[in-house]
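Morning F.,

Quick status update on the modeling queue. The single chain you submitted on Monday has been processed. Sequence for confirmation:
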Amino acid sequence: MVMASDSPEAKQHRNPVVLEFSGADSDDIYDLRRGQGRIFRSVEAQITKLQEKGKISENIQPIIVITKKKRKKKGLLD
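Structure tokens below.
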């Protein structure tokens, strides 16, 4: 009898993959949410490269976080 904790899938190691994307505008983010566009293709290409090198497993679940810089206030009437 195989227990759920004995299966190879249950023994996954956390190995986060962080990809930084600069210059993402609202259209790029909109496309990414729908699974298409420039950022989506870039993430897909980076994950494929890492899988080919053997750095990450085949069943990776990417988490994508896009942040925007907070605008600096320049003065009284910015």
